[in-house]
From TrEMBL:
Belongs to the Iojap/RsfS family. Interacts with ribosomal protein uL14 (rplN). It comes from the Bacteria. The keyword DNA repair does not apply. This is Ribosomal silencing factor RsfS. InterPro entries: Iojap/RsfS/C7orf30, NT_sf. Keywords: Cytoplasm, Repressor, Translation regulation.
Length: 168
């Protein structure tokens, strides 16, 4: 008996790549990461917003009996912020309460802090609100770190750029 040829079912075609230049994945990975796309600019920032945030922070700290509240304008001197508020609290509970009240005060001004915006250690709480950075210290730590000397008006100007030596 003779076998009859079986018809083969057609295989479904695999999805074809979109037309255009082929991508060489080895060359792409050797070239390093792709540059990020430019961020889309939102509406222009409110020029008085930073001043309102500073006023709200200082008022909150004064209401909580913070000592030696200092505001430093570091615009052009630091790339990570424009204003620093430095204050001293005498006890852990006072410093934690100041941080919680600052979160509320900044929220009333329309600034919602990210979860990781508040960093705490044994003797220092840092609140990163973007253009405003707030440092809450115990007295001993404030003397050790002496941020007023580092960032105050008598400190060296600016940060080092690429290939430059830091003036600090």
């Amino acid at each position: 008996m003779r076998a009859t040829p079986r018809s083969r079912a057609a295989k479904p075609e695999a999805a074809k790549p979109a037309p255009g230049p082929a991508k060489d994945t080895k060359a792409a990975s050797a070239a390093g990461p792709r540059p990020r796309a430019a961020r889309r600019k939102g509406p222009p920032a409110d020029p008085g917003r930073l001043d309102r945030l500073v006023v709200a922070a200082v008022k909150s700290l004064e209401d909580d009996k913070a000592e030696d509240v200092t505001v430093l304008d570091v615009t052009g001197r630091a790339s990570f912020t424009d204003r620093m508020v430095i204050a001293t609290g005498l006890a852990d509970r006072q410093i934690q309460a100041m941080a919680a009240h600052l979160d509320e005060a900044l929220g009333k001004e329309g600034l919602k802090l990210r979860k990781d915006a508040v960093q705490a250690s044994e003797d220092w709480v840092l609140i990163d609100a973007g253009d405003l950075v707030i440092h809450l210290f115990k007295p001993e730590a404030r003397l050790v770190y002496d941020l007023e000397k580092m960032w105050g008006p008598d400190s060296p100007l600016g940060e080092a750029g690429p290939g430059e030596v830091s003036p600090i």
